[in-house]
Write a structure and sequence with these properties.
By secondary structure, the chain is α+β, with helices and mostly antiparallel strands. The protein has 4 helices and 21 strands.
Length: 320
């Protein structure tokens, strides 16, 4: 009987590279050669990164980005806008959507108001957007956007809307300085839909409620802050700060929780009674740190929340 060889038959050429799935892209090479060994030219390990479709144009994008670079550039980025400032309720039967710069779809009904007011169907809490800014309408003639007399205007593909203008899918509609893609038709199928929750958990619940009271002694000299039965002694300017944030939180009871109750640093500095002739942001930060330390020493939670570009607010909602 002949000998059976255990060696694999020789191949006619170098081994073919491993075929990658279509949704995976090779973005770099890493060779396992030692530091003193020459590069052999053979890829021993490849770094791979999953790519997905841009929800607007369908082109491939890195999964870490909201939109592809081209679509992001078309919208631009407002420096003073964060995702929590765009609030929209779910519309399960909507036939169109506004897509923001983070790639989030805000589905709209056949008559949808857009504005800074919290009661707008799509609330955009940003200074360039008017309280009642614009309205999206769907009729037998198609979709259009109607200008409602806003201060900074409504634009479709960079053309200012005088009264109303038609909307086509993938148009860029801008309310003040904040841009969205208007998406309808076949492109709507690429957009992820928000799952409805019976208890509206799609909204940011914001700070939790706590029993809170500020007590100012008749003789002056600061005051007392009470949270959940515990009392903290505060100085006059600390008392003023807490009272200002308390009033703002109460004033904005109907504002979306994610952005409710914030007071800008500039307004706080201009409002409080400082013992220095030229108060500034550094004085405010020091004041906030002292308030936090006073509460911490009493075993109480942080009473003041700060957020970049928003300012300061109470870290809880006072229970009335």
């Amino acid at each position: 009987r002949g000998q059976h060889s255990t060696a694999r038959p020789a191949r006619d050429g170098p081994s073919a590279p491993e075929e990658l799935p279509q949704h995976v892209a090779v973005v770099g090479e890493c060779h396992n050669n030692g530091p003193n060994e020459p590069r052999s030219g053979t890829v021993s390990m490849a770094t791979r990164r999953t790519v997905t479709e841009c929800v607007v144009c369908g082109n491939a994008k890195d999964t870490t980005a909201g939109l592809c670079p081209s679509c992001t550039n078309r919208l631009g980025v407002a420096a003073d806008l964060c995702p929590e400032q765009v609030v929209c309720g779910p519309e399960p039967d909507a036939a169109a959507a506004l897509v923001d710069v983070w790639g989030r779809a805000h589905f709209v009904a056949h008559a949808t108001t857009v504005g800074r007011d919290h009661e707008a169907d799509v609330a955009v809490v940003q200074g360039s957007v008017s309280r009642e800014h614009a309205r999206l309408l769907c009729t037998s003639a198609g979709w259009s956007v109607e200008e409602l007399g806003s201060t900074n205007g409504t634009y479709v593909n960079d053309i200012r809307v005088q009264r109303s203008a038609p909307l086509e899918s993938l148009s860029v509609v801008r309310f003040g300085s904040i841009g969205f893609f208007f998406v309808t038709g076949a492109a709507l199928d690429r957009l992820p839909r928000l799952e409805l929750q019976s208890d509206d958990t799609w909204r940011d619940s914001g700070p939790e409620e706590r029993a809170f009271a500020l007590l100012e002694p008749s003789g002056g000299g600061g005051g007392l802050a009470q949270i959940a039965g515990k009392t903290v002694q505060v100085t006059p300017v600390q008392f003023e700060l807490l009272a200002l944030l308390d009033r703002q939180m109460d004033k904005e009871r109907s504002v979306p929780a994610a952005v409710r109750g914030f007071v800008s640093s500039h307004e706080i500095v201009a409002t409080l009674s400082w013992d220095t002739p030229h108060p500034g942001d550094s004085h405010l930060k020091q004041l906030v740190r002292r308030v936090r330390r006073a509460f911490d020493r009493s075993g109480l939670p942080n009473p003041i929340e700060s957020r970049q570009r928003f300012g300061y607010r109470l870290g809880f909602v006072p229970k009335r």
